[in-house]
Specification:
single chain; alpha+beta; 10 helices
Length: 249
């Protein structure tokens, strides 16, 4: 099992040279995906014009498949506002571009989990493009075109502040870690087991009126198959006058 720091270190070189806010967003993406049990690797970051031209030649004037439609100066990679990612598998060495891979075994494609977290952080995904779907591509361009980037335009401080605010908001909704998910599922099973073991065959006489009041207030659909603690709680709420006020908010 690799630590988060070990996984992040594998992306360090590719994160170098990116705009600081975009880099911070990608680092947060790696954090959030790790918490979900998905390991993310940044495979491409800043490219020079020459590197972009060489990539553009692939599948055209050089062997290989076409992987980009952009020449040097026409890709957001050339300005530090775009990156490509892949999945790092559990052996810590194998890199995967399989968009259906479920390496964390949670019945969700890992690729989709990365994209979901990326969008929460305000990133644009190349898989949403109509003409040339670029599944590994993520970018944060603030509405600026490559022509404007070439002319020297960059995001305003207000735009950067808004992006940082979105990252901070996403942090407030931090997902459970893989360990927390496992512990929570175990707790759920334990609660279900305890509830099943403590169910009463009928509503106790001392709780009947409280259950009637709770149903009338729209709080309960049924009073059947509850545990002793359940009926005790309903009775306490009824005595406190909660159901007379028209329900619980």
């Amino acid at each position: 099992m690799m630590t988060l720091e070990q996984i992040k270190k594998k992306s360090d070189k590719r994160l170098s040279g990116l705009h600081p806010v975009f880099k911070m967003t990608l680092e947060k993406l790696i954090d959030r995906c790790y918490a979900r049990g998905v390991w993310v690797l940044i495979t491409q970051g800043l490219r020079t014009y020459a590197e972009q031209d060489a990539l553009y030649a692939q599948g055209r004037t050089k062997p290989g498949q076409v992987v980009t439609k952009a020449r040097g100066g026409y890709s957001n990679h050339n300005f530090g506002f775009a990156a490509d990612f892949a999945l790092l598998l559990r052996d810590g060495r194998t890199v995967s571009w399989d968009t259906l891979k479920d390496d964390d075994k949670d019945s969700l494609p890992d690729w989709s989990e990365v994209v979901e977290e990326a969008k929460k952080l305000g990133l644009e995904w190349g898989g949403d493009w109509r003409s040339f779907k670029d599944m590994p591509h993520l970018q944060m361009v603030f509405g600026i075109t490559t022509a404007q980037f070439r002319a020297g335009r960059r995001p305003s401080q207000a735009q950067l502040n808004a992006a940082i605010a979105k990252i901070n908001k996403a942090e407030d909704d931090e997902p459970m870690t893989a360990e927390e998910k496992t512990a929570f599922k175990a707790l759920q099973k334990r609660v279900i087991t305890l509830e099943a073991a403590n169910k009463l065959t009928k509503v106790p006489a001392w709780a009947e009126q409280a259950c009637i009041n709770a149903k009338a207030a729209g709080v309960l659909d049924t009073a059947n198959d509850g545990s002793y603690d359940f009926y005790r709680m309903v009775t306490m709420l009824d005595r406190a006058g909660v159901f007379k006020r028209g329900g619980v908010a």
